[in-house]
Amino acid sequence: MLALTSTNIIRELMNKIHWNNRLIAIRGSRGVGKTTLMLQYIKLNYPPGNRIALYCTLDSIYFSSHTLLELAEKFYLQGGKHLFLDEVHKYPTWSKELKEIYDLYPSLQIVFSGSSLLNILNADADLSRRCLPYNMYGLSFREFLMFYKNIRIPVASLQEVLENAGDICLGINEQCRPVQMFNEYLHDGYYPFFTGNREDYYINIENIVNLILEQEMPLLCGVDPAYIRKLKALLSILASSVPYEVDITKLAGTIGLTRNSVITYLQNLDRAELLKLLYSDLTSVKKMQKPDKIYLQNPNLLYAIASTSVQIGTARETFAISQLSVNHEIEYGKTQGDFVVDHKYTFEVGGADKTFKQIADLPDSFILADNIEYATGKKLPLWIIGLTY
């Protein structure tokens, strides 16, 4: 596995993780590259044949007749120091046994990965005080350029993007035609497994969606398997009509569920990183409050599962939400603008001819416009926010 793991391209998350911590969690949706990241770290930091590091996946048949606790004890007694555990959500008592291993073997360091639905705080054993969690997402537009085009661009914070858009645009345009690249990214740039055939890529995305719905949600959210078909219907309806102006009662009637069940399922789909729910006021969000707008989690997912042709305006907004939600809080702009970031910046998303009419005289307001290469005042290219992680 290590021999086949390439280290030519390393995700930015590699440099953010505090690898010396005793217990590290890497959470993320299926297919975003968690396994690759762990294997790359092992390959880069331990010589071939080194016995102090061990990688294993917890859906291995080995664990049908052995416990994780047994494995950790054997490894520790043979001088093991660094244990890398993949797919921990596939192992029913993962949190209890990890807590016990943590307490029994103080010199053993553990890095584990699992679904974005993994709940470290409310698992059977609370690991929140012991564990340092990190969330992993699909490729940003910046990482897409590095992965698929061999164009390396440094990360720019949102503040840097808003203050220095002119210089950033100049640097990008010296290396590539960003509008052309951005159109590719919208269709097939989010997941790091595109091999050149878009049809195969979309089939793989559909498979990921099915595995999340059929395996992870019953296991980690307690969803009754009998309702999986209704969840698929819900996702299909949303994919064909996002951004969805939410009428929970109508939605519930369409798929035959109660209103409260629909809200709970929407929240679970958001945690599973299949949907992105936006609320108009994050400070007063209650558990059973309906979202104000619903998007799919990323534009590739939208193109892969929508049963009707995707509106470019929807794809643009989905991209903006997908990129900015990694490091920022996003609210639905109910009165002015499409959305508000960090309770401060208002953004309106549109095409090259988008005007400031809807956000005129609003402080800290910006237009994110598609099909432009350079910033003009507060009108920025939409692709530029894809450089923020």
Automatic annotation (TrEMBL):
Fetch the Pfam families from UniProt: AAA_14
What residue stretches are annotated with the AAA domain?
21-145
Annotated source species: Bacteroides cellulosilyticus CL02T12C19
Protein name stated in the entry: AAA domain-containing protein
* Superkingdom, natural source: Bacteria
InterPro entries for this protein? AAA_14 (IPR041682), P-loop_NTPase (IPR027417)
